[in-house]
Every structure is written in structure tokens, then in C-alpha cells.
Specification:
The protein is 18% helix and 42% strand. The protein is built from 3 helices and 32 strands.
């Protein structure tokens, strides 16, 4: 048998062996002899978590080991991407908040909350009565349950717990206060400077180019500032709690000069009482404005010859306007009168509008009388007030200020009690966290005398 025939026979035997599943150990011709023909074996995949197989599965096990070693790096990269995306979103949100003013208002609210917490922690050594050091106050206003008192030279602030928070001297010739919920502004009616203060510190100082005529602050510490203006009767600017201007209204001769401003409970709308010349006489109007609108709102025209004294925005649909000849309840949506009481020749001594009920001290036929009203300005009671000179009211009680005494009445005219043991002439009664009475330089809790119901 020749060599070629022998090789053909061997190839047929190898092919037959492969078909029958046998492995040939004979070398492949033309190789170095280390490669043999083997029947292909099925691939077996190792389940996740199973121990690596020995022998021929070693490369797969090595691949899985490499993947496991890369997993922490991949997770770290994913965390970095997540942090980067979160920071980007936060920066965008902060930019939007600052642009819209929401961030500044939130920061202001946080600062006021920190003040409240600090004053609460310091309440241990506080208590009433206190000596304010101001014997002839120009203004006394409630401030976050405590009060701020203005004298000719000094300003003192007390917390709701009876502790003196701060004292300073603004140095103004004609100082005036405008008080909000937790802040106040002291401004100079003889100049153009004002200071906005929290209970514990000065926040902002601003000098206007024109003289300041009037300031008013809302419950959320939004500030309205009325100044003189070239070419106009006045300019009204509104500043948010971070003292950024958010609104401006330049008033013409027809609209007049603002003499009273009152903010709505939403801190966005406001009423402005103005004084202007009409038909050769001075006349008052009340404009109901919205800081989100550029146009004039509804306007109420007062009775000719009546002077506006006070604006009190009691609810979203109720504004009390006190004039020297009558009192009216106005609807801010339409500027229409919904109730009215004319004094009929009586002289107004003092007014105390409540949320729904109202108390007036009127001089009628040469003698003072305390007159109380319901929400429709229908008289509830008329009480002889003798030498009384002032009235303060809460939602349920009326306090009549008399020489060396304070008398307490219900709105139906029934006297609850009389406090006759005051050491001096009462200067004011304040509805703060405690009902306070001011006499001389002293502020103390106004409590019923012993034995009073």
C-alpha cells in the first residue's frame, strides 16, 4: 500500500471517529504534533454567585472576577454623576427663588424665627412690670407679643416676656414708627432717612432723595414708603422683607397725596387714602390697589369736607375708614360703602375698630360718651364716659382710659370692672401677649382688681 492511500484511510478513520464521538489523539499532519482533533464540547455558563469551575472554565471565572473588581469604580462614577446633577438642579432652583423673591422672603422668615427662639431662651430673668425710661412716648406699638416704644430721642424694644431687647437713638428730628409683624421701621418726617429693624438688630438703612411723608408696614414686614417726587404729588414704593423694591406708584394731582396706607391680610393688596384739591376744596379718596396690577384699582370718594384719619383692613372684603365726621365700612373689590355711621355733629375723640365690632369715644353735647357698634355699624350701647380721653378695644372687650383709671366694658355696654389703683395717668393700653397698661415710665400687666368678676 502506497503512502497516499495510507493517508486517505487514516483521514476516513478520523472522520468516522468524530461522527461516533471519539477523540483522536493522533497528531494533525502538518503540525508540530501538539494539536489533536477533539470533539467540540458544549459551553457551560456558570450561574451568578456559583463558585468558579476548575480546568477549562478558568477564563470565564477570571472574567467575572474582573467585572466584580470594576463594579465599585462604576458605582463611584454613577454617584459622582448624581451629585453633579443634584448640584446643578439646586443652583438652578436657588437662582429661580432669588429671582422671584421667594428665597429672600424665606431667609427673612428664618431670621425672625431665630430671633423668637433666642428671646424665648432668655425669658428666665424677664417679667412685668418694667421701667422703659420713656415718660412721654410719641408712639407705643405692639411687636410680636411685646412692644416697641418711641420717645423724642430713644427707641426701646421689649419682648413678649418682659425683657428689654434693645435701646437705640435714631437721631431724627421728627421720628415716627411703622410696625409690622416682627419688624419695625423708624423714619424721619423731617428728612429722607429710615431704618428697618428686627427686634434684636438693625437690618437696613436707606436715605431717599426726596423727603419721607409716610411709611406703613404689613404683617409679613412688607414696607410701603411714600416720598415727595419731582413732577408728581408723591411717589409710593413698596419693598419686600429683604428691602428690594417690588412696586412703584407715582401719583398725579388728580390722585392726590397719600395720608394713610393699610395693607390687606394677603400682604399684596393695599388701600391708600389720599388728599387732593377738588372743586376748590380739599377732599379725600381711598384707592384700592393690587401690587400685581399696573392700573388703578377701585376708588372711594369721601364726603366733601371730611378728613380721613384711619384705615383698618380687617379682612379680605372689609375695610374700615374712620373720618372726622363719620365712619364707613368699604368693600375693597368695588370701593362701595357697605355700612356707615355719621357722627351728627359730635366730635371724635378716639376710635378703636375691631375685627367685627367697633368702639368710638365721641364728645356729644359737651360730654364724652363711649359708643359701641356691631359689624354693620349699628349702635349697640352708649355709655357716659365723663373725663375719659381714649379707648382701646380687643375682639371681646373695650378699655376706656380715664384719669388714673382704666375701665373695662363689653360691647353690649356692661361694665366688667374698673382699675382705679393706677399710680399715674394711663398713657396707653396695648393688646400684646399680655394686656399692658403704660403709666409714666412703667409698663405692667393690666389685670382686673381683686374681687372683680
Amino acid at each position: 500500500m502506497n503512502k497516499a492511500e495510507k493517508e486517505r484511510r487514516e483521514r476516513r478513520q478520523r472522520m468516522l471517529a468524530r461522527e461516533q464521538g471519539h477523540t483522536s489523539t493522533m497528531p494533525v499532519p502538518g503540525t508540530s504534533g501538539d494539536v489533536g482533533l477533539r470533539t467540540p464540547q458544549p459551553v457551560r455558563r456558570t450561574p451568578a454567585g456559583a463558585p468558579p469551575a476548575a480546568g477549562g472554565d478558568a477564563p470565564a471565572a477570571q472574567t467575572q472576577s474582573n467585572l466584580r473588581s470594576l463594579t465599585p469604580l462604576l458605582k463611584q462614577r454613577q454617584r459622582r454623576r448624581g451629585v453633579a446633577v443634584g448640584v446643578a438642579v439646586l443652583v438652578i432652583a436657588l437662582a429661580i427663588a432669588v429671582f422671584t423673591g421667594a428665597m429672600s422672603a424665606s431667609i427673612a422668615l428664618l431670621a425672625d424665627s431665630v430671633d423668637s427662639f433666642s428671646l424665648y431662651l432668655q425669658r428666665g430673668n424677664a417679667g412685668w412690670p418694667v421701667d422703659t425710661g420713656i415718660s412721654e412716648p410719641l408712639q407705643i406699638e405692639e411687636l410680636a407679643g411685646g412692644f416697641v416704644e418711641l420717645g423724642a430721642e430713644d427707641v426701646v424694644v421689649y419682648s413678649a416676656y418682659g425683657s428689654r431687647v434693645r435701646t437705640f437713638q435714631p437721631g431724627y428730628a421728627r421720628p415716627v414708627l411703622a410696625v409690622g409683624g416682627t419688624r419695625f421701621a423708624v423714619y424721619n418726617r423731617a428728612g429722607g432717612e429710615l431704618r428697618v429693624c428686627s427686634r434684636t438688630r438693625d437690618l437696613f438703612t436707606r436715605t431717599f432723595e426726596q423727603g419721607i411723608l409716610l411709611c406703613e408696614m404689613s404683617a409679613n414686614n412688607t414696607l410701603a414708603v411714600v416720598t415727595e417726587a419731582d413732577g408728581y404729588t408723591a411717589q409710593l414704593q413698596i419693598f419686600d422683607p429683604s428691602f428690594r423694591q417690588s412696586y412703584r406708584w407715582q401719583l398725579t394731582q388728580k390722585e392726590g397725596t397719600p395720608i394713610a396706607v393699610g395693607f390687606a391680610p394677603d400682604n399684596r393688596r393695599f388701600a391708600a387714602g389720599t388728599l387732593a384739591a377738588r372743586d376748590g376744596q380739599l377732599a379725600c379718596s381711598v384707592y384700592f390697589m393690587d401690587t400685581a396690577e399696573e392700573t388703578l384699582g377701585p376708588v372711594y370718594t369721601a364726603t366733601q369736607g371730611s378728613m380721613l384719619l384711619q384705615l383698618d383692613w380687617q379682612s379680605d372684603d372689609r375695610v374700615v375708614a374712620v373720618f372726622d365726621t363719620y365712619i364707613a365700612v368699604l368693600d375693597p373689590r368695588t370701593a362701595a360703602e357697605t355700612a356707615r355711621y355719621d357722627f351728627g355733629g359730635a366730635t371724635l375723640q378716639s376710635a378703636a375698630p375691631g375685627l367685627r365690632q367697633t368702639a368710638l369715644l365721641l364728645n356729644i353735647r359737651g360730654g364724652n360718651s363711649l359708643v359701641t357698634f356691631d359689624e354693620d355699624l349699628t349702635p349697640l350701647a352708649e355709655i357716659p364716659a365723663r373725663q375719659a380721653f381714649g379707648v382701646t378695644a380687643t375682639d371681646t372687650e373695650v378699655y376706656l382710659l380715664c384719669p388714673n383709671a382704666v375701665e373695662c366694658y363689653r360691647y353690649d355696654g356692661v361694665q366688667s370692672w374698673a382699675r382705679q389703683d393706677l399710680a399715674a395717668h394711663p398713657l396707653a393700653v396695648l393688646d400684646a401677649a399680655e394686656t399692658l397698661v403704660f403709666t409714666g415710665t412703667t409698663a405692667e400687666v393690666l389685670a382686673p382688681p381683686e374681687g372683680a368678676a
